[in-house]
Amino acid sequence: MEFTLTDLTHLLPIVIVAASVLVAMTIDMFTKEADKTLGWFTALSLFAAAYVSLFFVDKTGVHLSGVVASGGATNILHFVFTFGAGVVALISMEYAKKTEMRVGEYYVLVLSSVLGMMLIAAAKDLAVIFVGLEQMSISFYALAGIRRKRDKSVEASLKYFLLGAFATGFVVYGMALIYGSSGTMALDTIRYAFPDLVSQPLFVLGLALFVIGFAFKIAAVPFHMWAPDVYQGSPTPVAGLMSTVGKAAAFAALLLIFRPVFDGAENALFPFLAIVATLSMLYGAIVAIAQDDLKRMLAYSSVAHAGYMLIGFASGEATGAAGVIYYLVAYAFMNLGAFGIIAMIESAEETNLKVQDYAGLGTRAPALAALLSLFMFALSGIPPLAGFFGKYYVFIAAVEGGATWLALVGVASSAISVYFYLRVVVVMYFGKSENRMEYSVSNVSLLGVTISAMLVILLGVLPGSIIKLIESFVR
Amino acid sequence: MLETYLPILLTFAAAVGFAVVATFSSEWFGPQTPNPEKHSTYESGVKPLGTTKDRVSIKYYMVAMLFIIFDLEVVFVYPWATEFGTLFGEHGVAAFWSMMIFLIVFEFGYLYAYKKGGFKWA
Amino acid sequence: MLTLEHFLTLSAIMFALGVIGVLTRRNAIIVFMSVELMLNSANLAFVAFATKLGDPIGQVFVFFVMAIAAAEAAVGLAIMIAVFRNKKTVNIDEINILKW
Fold first, then answer.
1. CATH of domain C4-87
2. What φ, ψ does residue A62 adopt, rounded to 5°?
3. Predicted-assembly ipTM surpassing the 0.90 threshold
4. Hey, where are the domains in chain C?
C-alpha cells in the first residue's frame, strides 16, 4: 500500500471530516460551555469539506490499495453530505439552545455520521460500504435519542436501532452471498464479472438481500414502517439529517452496486425494484394526506420520494443514475429547508408541529411563510424548482428504459402529493389562527434555510448544465 | 524435534510455579483474620447464590460495555503484530503508520471515555 | 466429510431463526439478540466461503463485522437503558407513544 501526498489531497474531503471528528471530541472534552464554538466549528469544517469536494471534482482516482475512490460522482455526493450536514449544523444551534440538548456529543455524532456517508460514497470494496454504513447508522441511533429525558426521543431511537440493526443483518448476509458467488469483495471486479454472475441464483439472492437491507435505510415500502415514528420522535434537525443526507448515503451504496446495470448489464432485480417503487410512491403520497403532524407528513413524503428515486434504478439507464444523483441533491436541500423552518417554529415542548398551528403565519412571519411555501412547491414538483427537474430526469430515464408505466405511476403520485404540500401553503396564508404561538427565529437558522432555498432555486434554473456535469461522471 | 517445545514447557512450569507461590505465600506470610464473607465463593463481586432474575446495578453496564469495545478492537492489532515482518517487507513504513493512526484514533476514544467519567464507579 | 453446503445450510438456518426472532419476540433485548444471530450467520457464511475460496479477505471481514457489532451493541444497550429509565419496560408493545 502506497500512501502519497496525491492520495492525501484527493481524499482531502474525507480527511477534513475525519480530523474534525477528533477535534470536535477534543473541544468537547476540554471546554465546559462549548455550544457556540462546537456548532460553528462543525458547520465551518463541513462547508470547507464541501468546497474541497467540488474543487477536486475532476481528480478521479483510487487510493489505499484500491478500496477508496475520489473524484467524479463520489465528490458530488460528498458535496451533498457535507453541505447538507453543514446546513443542519446551522439550524441545530438555535434548536439546541431552545431545547437544552446535550451539544457536545451532538456535533461529534453529526460529524461522525457524515464521515460514514462519505466512506459509503467513496467505497470501492464491500467492506468499506459496510464500515461506512455502520458508522453512519450507529451515529444516527444515538442522535435520534439525544434528548434522552424525553420519551418520544428515546422511543424513536429504540425503534430506529432495532430496525436499523435488522436491516444491517440483511446487508451483511447479502454481502456474504455476493462474496461467495463472485469470490471477491472488490466492487470493480464484481462489476466486470456482473454479466456472468447474474446467471447464478446465489449471486442474485445476495444482491436481493443487499438491496432489501438498503431499502430499509431509504424507507421504501414495505420496509418503511420505522420512518414516520423515527422522524416524528427525533429532534427536528436530526430528522432533517436522516431523511436527506442519510437517505442520499443509502442511495449512494445502491448506485455503487447497480453500477454494472447502468453500464448495460441485465437488470436482474427489475420486478422487485418496480414493485417497491410503485408501492412507495402511491403509499407515501396517499398516507401523507391523512397526516396532521408536519414531521410525520414529511416522513411519508420521503417514502414517496424514495419511490421516485428507485424509478431511476428500475430504468437501468445511465441517465437514470444521473437523474438519481440530481434528485438526491435537489431533495436534500428542499427537505432540509422545510425541516429547518419546522425547527424554528417548534417549541421546546415539541408543540406547534401540526399543520393547523401554521395558520396565519403568512401575515405574522411573511419571510418564513414565503420560504416554507418555496420548499413545499419544490417538494411537490412544481416547475421551475429543483424538485420538478429531479422527477423529470428519472421519469425520462424510465421511458428510455422501456418502463413507461412506472413514469406514469410517478406522475399520478406527484399529482396526489400536490394536495398535501399545498395544504400547508393554503393554511399559512388563508387559515384562521386561534393560538398566537411563540417562535424563535435566529439569524443563524435563517442563514441555513436561505442557503437551502438558494440551492433549490439554482438547481431549478440551471438544471441542464448540472445534469450534464453529473452525466459525464456517471458514464 | 521435541526441544522446540521447550519454551512451552518453561512457560507451563512458570505458570504453575507462579500459581503455587502466589496461593501459598499469601497463606504463609499474610495476616490471618478469617470471617464468613472471606470464606464464601468468589464470583466477580456478585453474590454467588440466589435467583437468576436479580437486576444488576446499572454501573456494571458502563464498565462492561467499555470493556467489550476496547477488548474487541484488539482483533485488529493482533494479526497485524504477528505478521508485522511480512507487512513491513511488502509495504515499508506504511504498515507501521496505518496501525499507529488506528491506535491514535482509538486513544482519542479512550481519553474521551475517561474525561466524560466513563470509568468512574460512583 | 463437511462440505461448503453444510456450513451454508447451517448459516441459512441461523439467519432464518434470527429473522423469525426479530419478527416474533417482543422483548427489545431478545430482538437485538436475534439480530446478532443474523450477523453471526453471515460471519459463518463468510468464513465458509473464505475457506472454500482459499482467500483470507472473507475471514478478515468477519473481524470487522464482530468489532462493529460490539459498537452497535454498546449503543443499542445504552438506548435500551434510556428507554427503561423513562418507561420501566423494554417490551416493544408497551413502547407506543408514537404509532408504529
1. 1.10.287.3510
2. -120, 145
3. yes
4. 4-87
